[in-house]
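B., you asked whether I could sanity-check this one before it goes into the benchmark set. Here's the sequence:
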Amino acid sequence: MADHNQASRSAKADELLDGLNAVSSHLASRSFLQHLTASRLPSAAVSDSSSLGPTKEEARSPARRPHLNIAAAFEDEIEHVDLIAPLIQEPCADGSTGSVEQRVIDQLEVAFVCAHRAYAEMAAERSFQTFSHGHQDLVLAVDFNYFGTRMVTASSDHRVKVWDKKDDSWTLVESWKAHDAEIVDVKWNGPFMGEVVGSIGEDGRCKIWQEDVTEVAMSGNRFKLVYVLPSLTNAPFMSLDFKNIMQETWLALITRDGYLTVYEPQDQNNLHEWTILAERWVSENNPPERQEEVGFKVVFHKEKLPCWTAITAGLDRKSLSLAVAAMKDVLIFRTDKAKRFFQVAKLEGARQIVRDLAWANGSMRGYDILATASKDGAIRIYELRTQTENRNAASGEASSSAPLSVSPRGHRQNAPSGIGAGLAGASKAPDTSIENEQYPGRIKQKVEMTDELTNHHGAVWRVAFSQMGDLLVTTGDDASIRTWKKAADGHWQEYAQIETAQDN
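And here's what the prediction gave me:
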């Protein structure tokens, strides 16, 4: 029965697609277009439509949704197209558009828009799949692997589950108790480091899990605990993210009180021992109150290379680029040739805490694009461009940017003096005066907020770019998923909207 329903839906979609192609071909014909004004083109009709999805009235009344009866109506329209084609190709003697032709144009435009709307809705229905995740409490985090073939879910029930995609369905591979408290974030590390998962929980621990493919699925032992990172401030972690450059990997963590740490393995071929690469408070000037809602998140730029303009300006090709949401602001860090982090920009403008942020792929674009989701209901788009007029001068930038080298409780370590200071300086680094003059691999960048999108009716919770960085997907308290695309004028505009069902 299920196969029959799936085949029926597939046939229906193919039928709609054939009809859509037929109308599109007819509307694109030279004889038809040469007698149309710009206001009568189908693109104008589509732009007047609120979206390619169903209207709110159609959503409330399933009987009125176009995809339920569009196939039959579409067949009628296609039959009429063949009969009236000569009328379209032969305009009136005075060159004006006759009433019959006008009626045909209106019918074709309606069919064109309805077909687009119905096909988009059916495609959405076929793309979204629901299944029982089996967790005993709320699912707080979900992440896909690099290829989109595996999924990991984390829940308030203290458990992590790994799923494999097989034949358009998700099969549970392993489920295990990962923490002694609710799990707030989980991430895949890859694709070159094996099947590795990182998780953080309210128990103040970050745990690294590595898959042992020799273990039987659903045995409870397939993912082995290889390392545990405790919070240095005793506050639970709030966000984590991995960065990979081929066989090298790094891990960024931030606690609920705003303490950022970046780790790297002591041996890149072994994830059983990690060491701190950098650390810093990101809310030192305005620490959150204990009862205050906080917004902290870490996101690495995931592409192998940074933006090409930054590389030509002197940035190291293997530089790490990290965006850190710190309450209402977002701090952008990069590393120089010595893998020392320095701050290049601050994204400002949010009136309330930033709940999520995303870094778009597109190293060949010439500039970086970042998006933030705020509790104030706005999505903000920023462009980060490289200043190339002063390529080698970075000492001023470095002096104004706090390094990631502060002790866990905010007290800077006392510097040694006398002979000890001389030995320490000789063994660890060259003369500091020379070092401060060069900072090889550091660049200057300028940030600009290009768009502030407020279509969501309520707080925005998540933002994510497509793999190519040309589409942005957002979701919020209004129970809608919205897709945004950069228009010809350079600004981001809403492209589509899907209303998600809410269970009462």
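One thing to flag: The longest helix spans residues 99-127. Otherwise nothing jumped out at me.
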